[in-house]
Amino acid sequence: MVFFDDQQSQMLSESTESYCEKLKRSLKARGKSTRTIENYSKGVREYLDWLSRKPTDKDGEKFEQYSLFLLEKKHLSPNTINLINSSLIYFYRYIVGWDEVKKSIVRVKSGKPLPGVYSEEEVARILEAPSSMKHQLILKLAYGCGLRLSEIRNLRKQDINFGRDVIIIREGKGKKDRSVMFDIELKRELKIYFDIYKCTEYVFEGYNPGVPLSIRTIEKVYENACKKAGIRIVGGIHALRHSFATHLLENGVDLRYIQELLGHSRSTTTEIYTHVSSNKIGKIRSPLAYLREKKRQGME
Question: In angstroms, how far apart are the furthest CA atoms of the chain?
């Protein structure tokens, strides 16, 4: 084990900060998303802390050691380790200046588990669990519109078109814009919400006007709702998006429309790019409508 005095520790800390700042500037200059910048910065910072010295183009043997450390000591999943490895490839190539780094990093083999999906009854309980209107709407947008976590966080008031019953998702995954429908009841609730909360820019803002809620806050909203509803969590809030797609398919919506609503440019089965006009999207019923109808039928 190597021990460092206070001066050495401070020098290493300063060096790590310098590298991370360079990494962030490089990622921003290449138009990477905020989530990518956060993930890559976290991955590189933790690696540099583990390495405990300046990185060089002779670090090839360290990558295998670090992957084993992440797998056996930190018990991270193969997908998480591969994300960290991607951050290291970028870091060594563009910040350290080692163009051949990719040849030294071996990706960890991972399976392809089926996405976690809730039943309609479970979704209904999750959506009704929060006592806060804001928290309910976060979950309803995740399920009722099939939004990603980052898309919920970055959703702006101006992107909700009440006249056409569509929401414009700006620069989703792959920097692509798309339109999604929203349910008539969700439309009514959003109007009431805006009257109460007086958001300035983003649909979901924190204590500071014009600043969106943090990713972790949105994750906690979902986790707390599942806990309160007594529902076993089958994944992150993304599970509501998976449920959105599954329930639409089960209710007879064409798979091509679902792909467009999810923002997928191609299908893994057909490999065909699909595009659906926004006027058709506005007429597709949200799965929230199916939930409401079944609930009413059960009360009759």
Answer: 74
